[in-house]
Specification:
The protein is α/β, with parallel strands linked by helices. The chain has a single domain, classed as P-loop containing nucleotide triphosphate hydrolases (Rossmann fold), CATH 3.40.50. It has a 7-stranded parallel β-sheet with strand order 3-2-4-1-5-6-7, sandwiched between helices. Helix 6 links the parallel strand 6 and strand 7. The termini are far apart. The structure holds adenosine-5'-triphosphate and magnesium ion.
Length: 251
């Protein structure tokens, strides 16, 4: 059995790896898929997130994988997952090449969150190159722009950089306190039911579609529509460039 493995990777700290990994894990749980969140970071932010997770929500099985000897980690990667289980890796900044090799080879998806900052933009090509050299299939690799604010010079540089890459740029997640709130509550962004969070959930659509095309369907089930409301009236707005316009300052 091939275990669908999603790896969130970037040598740079603070770019949103844990935020992305935990929200993806919550999406899997929301679909009632068994999900294992392997936290390779000794600081254990993903593990701490899972401990804050309300027991009323579908469970995410988080495991501190940084303390597991390499041989055992390999067993985690190459077997040992339960039937139908999705395995999501949250990795620390500056992960060593041997572990990257182990993680990304044959991964179903390797996601690289990148902030619109000159430091992050400078580091990203190396991360992409490392993943490809480590044997990550090119079609499994994608960049996620994170903490995006439109109309900034940094955002313009990030867009230019992403267009220059030959790997896809699958989503632009806005800079929003909803992510901070979701993380603090042990929830994924799709588990916050506020107008601000619903706006963020729309920016995940292209990422979740991209994952689905790779056999990892984490798309939230369609909302149940109360009788009397036409179904298409309840549909979410499809992803479009408008996502960038929503956070423009009001005139
Ligand atoms: N889109 C966003 N909008 C606002 N805040 C965000 C967003 N994404 C992440 N953050 C915040 O940025 C900080 C860093 O995010 P996160 O911990 O996910 O990054 P990381 O790459 O895992 O960091 P590290 O390398 O230290 O593990 C956190 O406080 C998080 O809540
Ligand atoms: Mg982290």
């Amino acid at each position: 059995m091939v275990v669908p493995r999603v790896v969130v990777l970037n040598a740079k700290g603070g770019c949103g790896k844990t935020t992305l990994a935990t929200s993806l894990a919550a999406c899997a749980a929301g679909r009632h898929r068994p999900v294992r969140l392997l936290d390779l970071d000794p600081l254990g932010a993903a593990l701490a997130w899972s401990r804050r997770r309300p027991t009323s929500l579908p469970p995410v099985r988080a495991i501190a994988a940084d303390r597991v000897p390499l041989g055992v980690t390999r067993t985690f990667l190459l077997g040992g997952a339960e039937h139908d289980e999705i395995v999501i890796f949250d990795t620390p900044a500056g992960l060593g090449r041997p572990t990257i090799d182990l993680l990304v080879r044959d991964a179903a998806a390797v996601l690289v969150p990148v902030l619109p900052s000159s430091v992050d933009i400078a580091v990203a090509p190396r991360v992409v190159a490392d993943a490809l050299l480590a044997g990550c299939p090119k079609e499994a690799l994608a960049v996620v722009a994170n903490r995006v604010r439109s109309r900034t010079r940094a955002f313009a540089s990030l867009t230019l950089f992403l267009q220059s890459l030959t790997i896809p740029f699958v989503a632009a997640l806005r800079d929003s306190q909803s992510y901070v709130a979701a993380t603090a509550e042990g929830r994924g962004i799709h588990e916050l039911d506020t107008p601000a969070a619903r706006k963020e959930q729309e920016s995940w659509i292209p990422l979740l579609e991209w994952l689905s095309a790779r056999g990892i369907d984490l798309r939230p089930p369609p909302p149940t529509v109360p009788s009397g409301i036409p179904a298409d009236a309840a549909e979410s707005t499809p992803y479009s460039e408008d996502v960038f316009r929503n956070d423009e300052p009001k005139p």
